[in-house]
Amino acid sequence: MTEPSSSSSSSRLPPTPPALPTLPFALPDIGEAEIAEVVDTLRSGWLTTGPKARRFEQEFAEFLGDAGLQCIAVNSATAGLHLALEAAGIGPGDEVITATHTFTASAEVIRYLGADPVIVDIEQHSWCIDPREVEKHITSRTRAIIPVHFGGRSADMSAILAIAKRHGIKVIEDAAHALPCTHRGAMIGTLASDAAVFSFYANKTMTTGEGGMLVTRDEALARRAKVMRLHGIDRDAFARFNSATPAWRYDIVAPGFKYNMTDIAAAIGLVQLTRAHEMRERRAAIAAQYDDLLADTGIALPPHAEAGDVHAWHLYPVALPAGLHRDRFIDAMFAQGIGMSVHYIPLHQQSYWKESCRLHADDFPVSETLYRSTASLPIYTRMTDGDVRRVAEAVRRAMEPQ
Ligand SMILES: *Cc1c(COP(=O)(O)O)cnc(C)c1O
């Protein structure tokens, strides 16, 4: 060995400060109550869709504050979006409009049904789908719009619902980020759209590990989605004509899917839901602390909700000033132990969408400019005020010229 021993080298070098542990980009907030509820399910003998999934659906409708809503628990938001579009009758030859600045799930469900996604740009002030772009892209084949409440800030639903009404097309909200969130004082999930779909993926504002909730006030849509959620099994068909239908009796009315939520997942959801407002308040406090700590850095802060509206604060993406290289900024954050992400690499930059929908970056100036300059900071309930300060300080150091 020719290398000096570590003890002799450390006696000559100034001691390096112990590295701070890495701050993850996202962490679920699971407490003892969630664990106890899952254990209760495991001991109950009923693991798959059963009493807890049913209770979760009821309590979700109560949470949204609208008794007229049907809530349909599924094993992902992607599944819920697929079911909603299927039940809305979307199929080959149809066009469905969604935003480029989203996760691929918003668009892939359109392809599941053999329909054609029409990808449009977002608005500068909200980072959500631009209603004027929606209007511009409506054709005789347009059947639905999928707005995304980006980062937990409501899209301009008033404009979108007005366009949909004028053209006789459906609105299915991708509400994956939007629990809880309001538009003009009304909870997302209770608007006049055809359906809204929430996600309980592990990094979302509340979680069931994997899971989602399809919410609708359309009885026919709900009925179809419930049948298609579980193999196309229809028990009601018999029950309607024969009150003495035996438990084993059912009919298959379509080649359905396997999209039901387990009671194990619902057990987590039941507890998370009771904490949803309190968890949102914590994320809003973190966002306010970031706003304050980053106000003088030259960084553009994420769009806030309209006055009086609730922002779910699922994400806290910032836009870097011109001249600061986004990828190098993220590298510098990682080097300081801060987990980072980008929301999103837009659909028009993804090979499949670019090729199959013939998308060109020039047609998405708002999304493209944001994509090149934005990075998302960690924002989740388990962060302490000290963690937030640590991230803000790391941002300042990452912005210093190298
Ligand atoms: C997470 C996410 C989805 C998909 O949710 P899953 O529950 O993972 O299927 C859909 N759309 C957006 C915008 C998302 O962020």
Automatic annotation (TrEMBL):
Bias (Low complexity): 1-13
Molecular function in Gene Ontology: pyridoxal phosphate binding; transaminase activity
Keyword flag Transport: no
Active-site residues from the entry: K204 (proton acceptor)
InterPro entries on file: DegT/StrS_aminotransferase, PyrdxlP-dep_Trfase, PyrdxlP-dep_Trfase_major, PyrdxlP-dep_Trfase_small
Residues with the N6-(pyridoxal phosphate)lysine modification: K204
Chain intervals for the UniProt region annotation (Disordered): 1-22
Pfam families, per database record: DegT_DnrJ_EryC1
Keywords: Aminotransferase, Pyridoxal phosphate, Transferase
GO BP of this protein: polysaccharide biosynthetic process
PANTHER family hit by this protein: DTDP-4-AMINO-4,6-DIDEOXYGALACTOSE TRANSAMINASE, TRANSAMINASE
Family of this protein: Belongs to the DegT/DnrJ/EryC1 family.
Protein name: DegT/DnrJ/EryC1/StrS family aminotransferase
